[in-house]
């Protein structure tokens, strides 16, 4: 299989590491944490039921992250000891994520209206309004917030858990069991027979939107095995060589998308219709038209913030 050079793979900007030091060594340092929480320059991202507080023009243009101070967060009823340290930015200021429950939101001063606009991060990513560095930082905060929302009780004994290490661990109050933030691995796959690529249209997609195929990694399975199993189940295609290209954290709720190219050894399709509404082979010329939203049948592909787009682009850009 003639895979693209990974050096030239157009990887979407992912992970906030370019502007953020996660400060993992300080998460359990209570004195340092108290100093950061008391520091007037520390800033908080606010999630209300996983919707993100932003500042934006009425027509939703010029959207930016909305930064709150510790005082503002406390006024909303959030316990500062239950906020999550994302890290320190390049000028050394600490950045946290804070989560407001539905109940806190209803009793907050000024109510929900005072925090508007509260937006869905996925929609924001699709619109491409938020700068890449802010989008990845918000994604990190959302993934962590989602994990905490789902981890309030111990999976071992059912007791309540509490926040530890600035949000990077939870511990059961009853049995002491520890829990750590997780990323759930899923493969996302560009299948090619050399001259065409296979893209699918899922039932949940609106319009004529085609994308790379994806599936969850099961226990005891490696990425290559997952690619071969999922693609056989979904499309009936037998996969040969599998090549890792790049990965992308996807905070809905906390996935790790593992992007691969896969060689198709067969081309006849047998679709798993429960999931996949349609899948078809597209030539490079067709894919280019889809990326430019000029395909004669109105077919389109995902937006440029996604690893799906990067995989599709790497196929379209190949000269052979
Ligand atoms: Zn327990």
Output the structural class.
alpha+beta
Beta-strand percentage range: 25-35%
* Molecular shape: globular
CATH topology of the largest domain: Nucleoside Triphosphate Pyrophosphohydrolase
Q: Helical residue percent?
A: 25-40%
Write down the overall mean pLDDT. Answer: 91
Report the CATH C-level class of the largest domain. Answer: Alpha Beta
User: Major sheet: size, sense and barrel closure?
Assistant: 8 strands, mixed
Write a brief structural summary:
It is built from nine helices and 17 strands.
Would you give an account of this structure?
There is one protein chain. This protein has 320 residues and is α+β, with helices and mostly antiparallel strands. It contains 9 helices and 17 strands. The chain folds into 2 domains: 131 residues, Nucleoside Triphosphate Pyrophosphohydrolase; 135 residues, Nucleoside Triphosphate Pyrophosphohydrolase (Alpha-Beta Complex), CATH 3.90.79.10. The strands form 3 sheets. Strands 1, 2, 3, 4, 5, 6, 7 and 8 form an 8-stranded mixed sheet that branches. Strands 12, 13, 14, 15, 16 and 17 form a 6-stranded mixed sheet that branches. Strands 9-10-11 form a 3-stranded antiparallel sheet, with no helix packed on it. Strand 6 and strand 7 form a beta hairpin. The termini are close together. The mean pLDDT is 91. Bound molecules: zinc ion (ZN). Zinc ion binds next to loops.
